[in-house]
Amino acid sequence: MAKRIHERPDWLGVPDVVDIYSLSGCVSDDFADYISCWKHNGYWLFDSPEVIRIVADETETELGDTRLFYYEVHEFEFGDRKWSPFLPEASVGTNVLLPTSKKLEGFDVVTFWAHSSPECSPLSCNSLAKKIPTNSHCLLQSLEQAKNALEDGQFENSEPGPYRVFAVYSVDWPSVPK
Asked: What is the pTM of this model?
Protein backbone atom coordinates (compact mmCIF):
# COMPACT_ATOMS: atom_id res chain seq x y z
CA MET A 1 0.00 0.00 0.00
CA ALA A 2 1.15 3.49 -0.73
CA LYS A 3 0.30 5.99 2.01
CA ARG A 4 0.63 9.68 2.74
CA ILE A 5 2.24 9.71 6.17
CA HIS A 6 1.07 12.41 8.56
CA GLU A 7 2.77 13.68 11.67
CA ARG A 8 1.22 12.88 15.02
CA PRO A 9 -2.02 14.84 15.41
CA ASP A 10 -2.16 16.97 18.56
CA TRP A 11 -5.30 15.17 19.76
CA LEU A 12 -3.39 11.88 20.01
CA GLY A 13 -1.66 13.19 23.12
CA VAL A 14 1.40 10.90 22.93
CA PRO A 15 4.55 13.05 22.59
CA ASP A 16 6.83 10.09 21.78
CA VAL A 17 4.86 9.36 18.61
CA VAL A 18 6.33 11.28 15.67
CA ASP A 19 4.15 10.08 12.80
CA ILE A 20 1.47 7.49 12.03
CA TYR A 21 2.35 4.35 10.04
CA SER A 22 -0.98 2.60 10.67
CA LEU A 23 -2.60 0.46 8.01
CA SER A 24 -5.91 2.28 8.37
CA GLY A 25 -6.48 5.48 6.46
CA CYS A 26 -7.94 7.35 9.45
CA VAL A 27 -4.81 9.49 10.01
CA SER A 28 -2.29 8.63 7.29
CA ASP A 29 -4.27 8.42 4.07
CA ASP A 30 -4.17 5.67 1.49
CA PHE A 31 -2.83 6.99 -1.80
CA ALA A 32 -6.30 6.87 -3.42
CA ASP A 33 -9.87 5.70 -3.00
CA TYR A 34 -8.95 2.39 -4.60
CA ILE A 35 -11.75 -0.08 -3.84
CA SER A 36 -13.90 0.86 -6.85
CA CYS A 37 -11.00 0.04 -9.21
CA TRP A 38 -11.16 -3.63 -8.12
CA LYS A 39 -7.42 -4.18 -8.48
CA HIS A 40 -6.85 -5.05 -4.81
CA ASN A 41 -6.18 -8.59 -3.67
CA GLY A 42 -8.09 -10.81 -1.25
CA TYR A 43 -6.62 -8.92 1.71
CA TRP A 44 -7.94 -5.66 0.20
CA LEU A 45 -4.36 -4.50 -0.37
CA PHE A 46 -2.14 -4.78 -3.46
CA ASP A 47 -0.02 -7.58 -4.88
CA SER A 48 2.75 -5.27 -6.10
CA PRO A 49 3.86 -1.65 -6.50
CA GLU A 50 3.03 -1.95 -10.21
CA VAL A 51 -0.65 -2.53 -9.41
CA ILE A 52 -0.59 0.55 -7.18
CA ARG A 53 0.79 2.55 -10.11
CA ILE A 54 -2.00 1.28 -12.38
CA VAL A 55 -4.62 2.35 -9.83
CA ALA A 56 -2.90 5.72 -9.43
CA ASP A 57 -3.09 6.22 -13.20
CA GLU A 58 -6.77 5.21 -13.29
CA THR A 59 -7.63 7.58 -10.42
CA GLU A 60 -5.30 10.35 -11.67
CA THR A 61 -3.43 10.26 -8.37
CA GLU A 62 0.15 11.45 -7.83
CA LEU A 63 2.38 9.06 -5.91
CA GLY A 64 5.38 11.36 -5.41
CA ASP A 65 4.46 12.24 -1.82
CA THR A 66 3.70 8.67 -0.74
CA ARG A 67 5.63 6.01 1.14
CA LEU A 68 5.39 2.37 0.18
CA PHE A 69 4.54 -0.28 2.79
CA TYR A 70 4.38 -4.06 2.76
CA TYR A 71 2.16 -5.85 5.28
CA GLU A 72 2.18 -9.38 6.64
CA VAL A 73 -0.96 -10.39 8.48
CA HIS A 74 -1.08 -12.85 11.38
CA GLU A 75 -3.14 -15.84 10.27
CA PHE A 76 -5.62 -15.52 13.14
CA GLU A 77 -8.00 -12.69 14.00
CA PHE A 78 -9.19 -11.85 17.52
CA GLY A 79 -12.90 -11.49 18.23
CA ASP A 80 -15.32 -12.58 20.93
CA ARG A 81 -12.28 -13.02 23.21
CA LYS A 82 -10.77 -15.82 21.10
CA TRP A 83 -8.45 -16.31 18.13
CA SER A 84 -9.95 -17.69 14.91
CA PRO A 85 -8.34 -18.43 11.54
CA PHE A 86 -9.34 -16.38 8.52
CA LEU A 87 -8.49 -16.42 4.83
CA PRO A 88 -8.28 -13.77 2.14
CA GLU A 89 -11.45 -13.12 0.13
CA ALA A 90 -11.51 -16.07 -2.27
CA SER A 91 -13.42 -14.25 -5.04
CA VAL A 92 -10.52 -11.80 -5.42
CA GLY A 93 -7.18 -13.21 -6.52
CA THR A 94 -4.13 -12.89 -4.29
CA ASN A 95 -0.63 -13.25 -5.71
CA VAL A 96 1.63 -11.04 -3.60
CA LEU A 97 5.04 -10.13 -4.99
CA LEU A 98 7.44 -10.19 -2.05
CA PRO A 99 9.70 -7.14 -1.81
CA THR A 100 13.42 -7.69 -2.34
CA SER A 101 14.15 -5.74 0.84
CA LYS A 102 11.97 -4.45 3.66
CA LYS A 103 12.39 -2.78 7.05
CA LEU A 104 10.19 -3.85 9.96
CA GLU A 105 8.63 -0.74 11.51
CA GLY A 106 6.34 -2.44 14.05
CA PHE A 107 2.95 -4.10 14.40
CA ASP A 108 -0.50 -2.61 13.94
CA VAL A 109 -3.83 -3.89 15.26
CA VAL A 110 -6.61 -3.20 12.75
CA THR A 111 -10.37 -3.68 12.92
CA PHE A 112 -12.24 -5.74 10.33
CA TRP A 113 -15.85 -5.51 11.49
CA ALA A 114 -17.14 -5.75 7.90
CA HIS A 115 -14.62 -8.56 7.13
CA SER A 116 -13.37 -6.79 4.02
CA SER A 117 -11.01 -3.78 3.83
CA PRO A 118 -8.97 -2.47 6.78
CA GLU A 119 -11.03 -0.15 8.97
CA CYS A 120 -9.52 1.49 12.07
CA SER A 121 -6.21 1.22 13.85
CA PRO A 122 -7.29 1.92 17.44
CA LEU A 123 -3.75 2.74 18.60
CA SER A 124 -4.01 5.97 16.63
CA CYS A 125 -7.70 6.30 15.70
CA ASN A 126 -8.90 5.87 19.29
CA SER A 127 -5.75 7.15 21.02
CA LEU A 128 -5.05 3.78 22.65
CA ALA A 129 -1.36 4.68 22.34
CA LYS A 130 -1.97 6.78 25.47
CA LYS A 131 -2.22 3.57 27.51
CA ILE A 132 -0.47 0.97 25.32
CA PRO A 133 3.25 1.73 24.70
CA THR A 134 4.08 2.23 21.02
CA ASN A 135 7.11 3.24 19.00
CA SER A 136 7.58 6.59 17.25
CA HIS A 137 5.30 5.44 14.39
CA CYS A 138 2.41 4.53 16.74
CA LEU A 139 3.04 0.81 16.23
CA LEU A 140 3.64 -2.00 18.71
CA GLN A 141 7.10 -3.55 19.02
CA SER A 142 6.16 -7.19 18.56
CA LEU A 143 3.48 -9.67 17.59
CA GLU A 144 3.50 -10.92 21.18
CA GLN A 145 2.82 -7.43 22.52
CA ALA A 146 -0.12 -7.09 20.11
CA LYS A 147 -1.53 -10.50 21.00
CA ASN A 148 -1.16 -9.86 24.74
CA ALA A 149 -2.84 -6.44 24.49
CA LEU A 150 -5.79 -7.98 22.66
CA GLU A 151 -6.09 -10.92 25.03
CA ASP A 152 -5.83 -8.60 28.06
CA GLY A 153 -8.78 -6.55 26.78
CA GLN A 154 -6.80 -3.38 26.10
CA PHE A 155 -8.60 -2.87 22.78
CA GLU A 156 -12.10 -3.30 24.21
CA ASN A 157 -14.38 -0.25 24.01
CA SER A 158 -12.44 1.23 21.09
CA GLU A 159 -13.78 0.00 17.74
CA PRO A 160 -15.75 -3.18 17.03
CA GLY A 161 -13.65 -6.17 16.02
CA PRO A 162 -12.58 -8.63 14.98
CA TYR A 163 -9.00 -7.41 15.10
CA ARG A 164 -6.15 -8.49 12.87
CA VAL A 165 -2.45 -7.95 13.59
CA PHE A 166 -0.19 -6.76 10.79
CA ALA A 167 3.59 -6.52 10.63
CA VAL A 168 4.29 -3.15 9.00
CA TYR A 169 7.35 -2.91 6.76
CA SER A 170 8.62 0.14 4.91
CA VAL A 171 9.76 -0.62 1.39
CA ASP A 172 11.58 1.47 -1.19
CA TRP A 173 9.71 2.14 -4.41
CA PRO A 174 11.24 -0.07 -7.16
CA SER A 175 11.70 3.14 -9.18
CA VAL A 176 10.72 6.75 -8.70
CA PRO A 177 6.91 7.02 -8.57
CA LYS A 178 5.35 9.55 -10.86
From this structure: 0.94
